[in-house]
Structures are given as structure tokens and as C-alpha cells.
């Protein structure tokens, strides 16, 4: 069975003290209130990774994991401000996001660069969360499936089949992030099913069936259960709602 995953992307929010408090609240609530059938990934800013890994402690590798929001395409060297995959692995990171819509938009990250980043993450033994999704103009034009297909083909489909056991896809309709809009469960399911069909076409059906595909478009406690009930939605990449422990844990419980 493919993994159920709820990952909280804190983006550029929380001081270290705030982040440690939030992580501690989430960890204790997950332990007290959930059946631990869902993998929970905390994805704080880079500055918080090492101390939050210490908070996760022995729960790491069981059902609570540590994630990073990005990594460099370079292995090491004179790249001021960059953080390498090796550095992330050395502080206990389990999952790394690559290709988030904000990185694509604000930092002009293209398919080729994201392919390099994905390769670095996998080479260092971490799990890859690869984001894909369309902006409003593409959704309204009706060619959103082709748009998502290009993102996957250009960045991931040169990878060897055996690496896919370490890859999670996150579909994030850009028009539904921070706008108050949410894709309907049917709209989300359509794209998730299409993504799975593309993986099956490129590799095989058995491999595609095992890949977890997360929804990443303004998922909240109010709509989480309906979204997660769809056949090809295996959890969520949560933004704003992951900054409130109660909301985040309620989403995790909905995924159970």
C-alpha cells in the first residue's frame, strides 16, 4: 500500500523559538490523538532544522519526519546562500521539497534546474517531494493537464525506475494557494489520476500505484476529509494551516 502523508510547509514563517514551540505542540498532539497510520512531515525554515530534528528524536523514522523546503542543485562550492543536499542530510532531513510554485515563480526555477535538484536529493538518500501544478491562466485556458505533464516529463522522467520508491508528487494548483479558492475534490482527483497514468505510461502500472500523490492547494480541516477520500489523493502538502497545531493535526486525523 502506498503511504499516507501529511506534510506541513511552514515557508518563511516563525522565529526559532516559535518554530520549536509549534513543533513540540504538533508532536505531542500527534502522539496523543492519532493512530500513527499517517506519515507526518514537519518542513520548517532551514534555521530550524537541527533543533527540530532533536525535538522529533526517537519518533523520527517511525511516523514523524523532518523536511526541508528546498536544496541547491550544486554539490558544494562557491555558491553563497545555497544549502546543499549533503548539508540537509547531515542534520537529519528525511524529505526535501523541489519545484514548489513559489520557487518557480519568484526564483525562475526551470525544468532543467529542478531535474538537477531532484537528482541531488535522491543521491543523498532523502525522499523527494516534487511539486507540480498550473497557474490560473493555464487552468482557464483548459490545457492544465498538458502543463503538468511537461513539468513531470522534463524534470523527473529521466530518472531510473528504482528511484521512484523515494519520490512523492505534490499537485498544487497555483490558483488555489493563498487565494481562498480550493479545487473541488473532483478537480483535484482528475489531475492526481492523470499524474498516476503518466507514471504508469512512462514506467509501469505497479510502480505508479505505489507513488504517493499529495494535494497542495489550500487544504484545511473543513475540506480535508473530502479531498482525502478521492482514490488518487494520498495526503496533503499543507501551507498556512500547518502553522496552527490544532488545524494541522485535524488534517492529519482526516487523512486517517
From TrEMBL:
TM helices/strands, residue ranges: none
MF (Gene Ontology): triose-phosphate isomerase activity
A GO term from the CC aspect: cytosol
InterPro entries named among the record's database cross-references: Aldolase_TIM (IPR013785), TIM_sf (IPR035990), TrioseP_Isoase_bac/euk (IPR022896), Triosephosphate_isomerase (IPR000652), Triosephosphate_isomerase_AS (IPR020861)
Catalytic activities: D-glyceraldehyde 3-phosphate = dihydroxyacetone phosphate
Residues the record marks as active site: 100, 172
Binding-site residues for substrate, renumbered to this chain: 9-11, 178, 218, 239-240
Pathway: Carbohydrate biosynthesis; gluconeogenesis; Carbohydrate degradation; glycolysis; D-glyceraldehyde 3-phosphate from glycerone phosphate: step 1/1
Cellular localization per UniProt: Cytoplasm
Keywords: Cytoplasm, Gluconeogenesis, Glycolysis, Isomerase
EC number, UniProt record: 5.3.1.1
Principal EC category: isomerase
A Pfam family that the UniProt record links to this protein: TIM
GO biological process, one term: glycolytic process
Assembly and binders: Homodimer.
Family indicated by similarity: Belongs to the triosephosphate isomerase family.
Function, in words: Involved in the gluconeogenesis. Catalyzes stereospecifically the conversion of dihydroxyacetone phosphate (DHAP) to D-glyceraldehyde-3-phosphate (G3P).
Name of the protein: Triosephosphate isomerase
Organism: Thermonema lapsum
Amino acid at each position: 500500500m502506498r503511504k499516507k502523508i501529511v506534510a506541513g510547509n511552514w515557508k518563511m514563517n516563525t522565529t526559532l523559538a516559535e518554530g520549536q514551540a509549534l513543533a513540540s505542540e504538533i508532536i505531542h498532539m500527534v502522539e496523543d490523538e492519532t493512530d500513527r497510520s499517517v506519515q507526518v512531515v514537519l518542513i520548517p525554515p532551514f534555521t530550524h532544522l537541527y533543533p527540530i530534528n532533536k525535538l522529533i528524536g526517537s519518533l523520527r523514522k517511525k511516523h514523524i519526519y523532518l523536511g526541508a523546503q528546498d536544496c541547491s542543485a550544486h554539490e558544494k562550492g562557491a555558491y553563497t546562500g545555497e544549502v546543499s543536499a549533503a548539508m540537509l542530510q547531515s542534520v537529519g532531513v528525511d524529505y526535501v521539497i523541489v519545484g514548489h510554485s513559489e520557487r518557480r515563480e519568484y526564483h525562475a526555477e526551470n525544468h532543467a534546474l529542478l531535474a538537477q535538484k531532484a537528482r541531488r536529493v535522491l543521491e543523498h538518500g532523502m525522499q523527494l517531494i516534487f511539486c507540480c501544478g498550473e497557474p490560473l491562466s493555464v487552468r482557464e485556458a483548459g490545457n492544465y493537464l498538458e502543463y503538468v505533464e511537461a513539468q513531470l516529463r522534463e524534470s523527473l522522467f529521466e530518472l531510473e525506475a528504482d528511484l521512484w520508491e523515494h519520490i512523492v508528487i505534490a499537485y498544487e494548483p497555483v490558483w488555489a494557494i493563498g487565494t481562498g479558492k480550493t479545487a473541488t475534490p473532483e478537480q483535484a482527483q482528475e489531475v492526481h489520476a492523470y499524474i498516476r497514468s503518466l507514471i504508469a505510461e512512462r514506467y509501469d502500472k505497479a510502480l505508479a500505484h505505489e507513488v504517493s500523490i499529495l494535494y497542495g492547494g489550500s487544504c484545511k480541516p473543513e475540506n480535508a476529509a473530502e479531498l482525502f477520500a478521492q482514490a488518487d489523493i494520498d495526503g496533503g502538502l499543507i501551507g498556512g494551516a500547518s502553522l496552527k497545531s490544532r488545524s494541522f493535526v485535524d488534517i492529519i486525523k482526516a487523512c486517517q
